[in-house]
Amino acid sequence: MKNLSLVADGWVSKGVKLVLWKHADYEYEIEVTGWNLTDPSKTKVSIPYHSSYEEVIAHVKEMCSETNALIVY
Q: Is residue 5 part of a domain?
């Protein structure tokens, strides 16, 4: 069983929340909720991310740059 830990959360834009989970070393998941997608029944997107901690944090900071609303734990 993998350990799951919260790394960061924030807002991409108004109503669009981002959460970064760590599954293992170099295994992260970016979960975004609230995006207006083509299928209205799907409001959550999970993006697997296989990279270093520094690279994934830089990516998440870029995604939240419009709001600057990001907390890294």
A: yes
